[in-house]
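In response to reviewer comment 3 from the previous cycle, which asked for concrete evidence that the modeling workflow produces usable outputs, we include below a single protein chain processed end to end. The sequence was submitted unchanged, and the resulting structure tokens are shown without manual editing.
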Amino acid sequence: MRSPVFDDVDLSSLRKGYYGASAMPTEVLHEIRERLPDLQLWNFYGQTEMAPLASALGPEEQRDHAGAAGRPAINVETTILDETDTPVPHGTVGEIAHRGPHLMLGYLDDPVRTAEAFRGGWFHSGDLGYYDEFGLLHVVDRKKDMIISGGENIYPAEVEAVLRTHPGVADVAVVGVPHPKWVETPMAVVVPAPGDEVTADALLAHCREHLAGYKKPSAVVFVDELPRNAGGKVLKRRLREEHAQPA
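The workflow returned the following structure tokens.
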């Protein structure tokens, strides 16, 4: 959609679209519906270990539940567990865990990691999420990406979603970097929109309007592009390494 020829190409034959691999910003989903109104979307969520599908959100629920990961796929059971591996009630964030017949048997030649992943009879995905009142799964963030600042849990995806609503932001990733007082603090790594001279102060003010104070990034760094792997996922570990010093 960012291609300069997007509006000049006839895409009316497109009927089905699938997205996954990482959380799709709801702002992007809204734009897709506006610019490709005949496109039927499916959200597929899972892991390679699930070969790979765990849940799906069909086109009939895309408008009212944009961003949700949907309902468990056939033959899949999905639950949300707390730190003691106990199931939590709907609306409570915890670790997403699965079981089902197409789940892998284990990690090759790694019995320790396999035992840790399958403790309690569930495969622990490493993702954080919750079920809403409609029985739909929502993925909040990767457990390893969660930022704990001054004892408060901060989910980078929530901060990123707010920053994406600013017209001066083309792409963004929020990572936790060391802080002498809070132990860890969120930093926003931003790709500015083409031709926009957005400032760090403007983005921080935008965050203050829409987020609790402790969730606001402590700093904003501007880059030309975000590093990604072959699957399109942002390499947050690289960002943490590259931008830890400015904090």
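The longest strand covers residues 169-179. We consider this sufficient to address the reviewer's concern, and the full set will be provided in the supplementary archive.
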